[in-house]
Amino acid sequence: MTDKLNTQNSDAKTNRKLHFIAIGGAAMHNLAIALHHKGYLVTGSDDAIFEPSKSRLAKKGLLPQDEGWFPEKITPQIEAIILGMHAKADNPELVKAQELGIKIYSYPEFLLE
Question: What is the per-residue burial (b if ≥16 Cβ within 10 Å, else e) of 25-63?
Answer without folding.
Answer: beebbebbbebbeeebbbbbbbeebeeebbebbeeeebb
